[in-house]
């Protein structure tokens, strides 16, 4: 894939008051985010199954540990640590070793247990955050909170308790969320888009009979971001963000059109 040679016209330029940026470690995405995520912010990474949300989360933690010496915490509601270890190894990341070195902690739990431990200062979760000085956290995936209640108001309260609890800790957090395509997503039912600071969208797009991957920053609070839709690929080293899609429109509608043939 061609790498971008210079910032594109929609690369953000506005200057906001200085707050520390936390790099995701994915070069093109950090460009789209004006340098990275604001420290202490919460980010929803939304996409269909298999688009790369968990990979993005792990890459964020891995890069924090290796490049910035920042400890990471991964809370998984869906994948056993052994399966996360195996998938991460295929990208070249030895998570087991990082756990041994106490740089990474993976907790496999249920949404209910996670919620109660977030609310109790003496819980192993909060103790890990404090004692380890955890700076980066990933919650995979927040869609599992829908199993806790059928009541929409209850779900909204629950989501806002989780997100506010995470914000209180001052940890930069990525939450993944499954795009169901039916309008019944956690994002809509839990009103998550209103509570989180940033939203990143990962999508499959079909172009000339091939399936490609697209990434877009939908929202950043307190900061500017690029409005472009860029390609990305998954391979050794994880996610590689490439150029923006040129000469295409309606990419996110599911039926992209070439702007060259009209
Ligand atoms: N080593 C690899 N190289 C390229 N792609 C991979 C590799 N390992 C897994 N994948 C792809 O990554 C995707 C899995 O991404 P994942 O982060 O688990 O998605 P999500 O969490 O959004 O469901 C799958 O589409 C899989 O085919
Ligand atoms: Mg996943």
Descriptive keywords:
single chain; 262 residues; alpha/beta; Rossmann fold; 9-stranded mixed β-sheet; two-stranded antiparallel ribbon; 9 helices; 13 strands; disordered N terminus; binds adenosine-5'-diphosphate; binds magnesium ion
State the major sheet.
9 strands, mixed
| Lateral arrangement of strands in the main beta sheet | 5-4-6-7-3-8-9-10-11
The CATH homologous superfamily corresponds to P-loop containing nucleotide triphosphate hydrolases
Overall CATH architecture: 3-Layer(aba) Sandwich
Ends: how far apart? 27 Å
Low-confidence stretches: 1-11
What is the total domain count?
Answer: 1
Q: Helical percent range?
A: 25-40%
What's the number of helices? Answer: 9
Indicate the radius of gyration in whole angstroms.
18 Å
The ligands found in this model are: adenosine-5'-diphosphate, magnesium ion
Beta-strand content estimate: 25-35%
Predict the CATH topology.
Answer: Rossmann fold
What is the count of β-strands? 13
Please tell me the overall pLDDT.
87
CATH class: Alpha Beta
Quick one: overall form?
A: globular
- What string gives the helices and strands in order? EHEEHEHHEHHEHEHHEEEEEE
């Amino acid at each position: 894939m061609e790498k971008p040679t210079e910032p594109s016209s929609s690369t953000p330029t506005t200057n906001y008051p200085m707050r520390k940026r936390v790099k995701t470690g994915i070069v093109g995405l950090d460009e789209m985010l004006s340098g990275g995520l604001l420290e202490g912010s919460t980010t929803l990474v939304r996409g269909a199954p298999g688009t790369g949300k968990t990979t993005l989360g792990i890459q964020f933690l891995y890069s924090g540990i290796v490049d910035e010496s920042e400890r990471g915490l991964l809370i998984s509601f869906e994948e056993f640590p052994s399966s996360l270890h195996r998938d991460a190894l295929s990208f070249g990341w030895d998570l087991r070793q990082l756990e041994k070195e106490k740089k990474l902690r993976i907790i496999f739990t249920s949404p209910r247990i996670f919620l109660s431990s977030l609310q109790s200062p003496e819980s192993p979760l909060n103790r890990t955050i404090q004692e380890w000085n955890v700076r980066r956290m990933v919650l995979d995936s927040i869609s599992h909170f829908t199993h806790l209640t059928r009541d929409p108001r209850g779900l909204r309260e629950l989501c806002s308790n989780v997100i506010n609890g995470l914000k209180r800790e001052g940890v930069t957090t990525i939450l993944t969320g499954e795009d169901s395509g039916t309008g019944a997503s956690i994002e809509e039912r839990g009103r998550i888009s209103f509570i989180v600071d940033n939203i990143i969208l990962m999508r499959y797009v079909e172009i000339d009979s091939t399936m490609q991957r697209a990434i877009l920053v939908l929202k950043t609070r307190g900061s500017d971001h690029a409005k472009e839709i860029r390609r990305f690929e998954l391979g050794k080293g994880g996610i590689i963000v490439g150029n923006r899609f040129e000469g295409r429109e309606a990419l996110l509608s599911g039926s992209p059109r070439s702007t060259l043939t009209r």
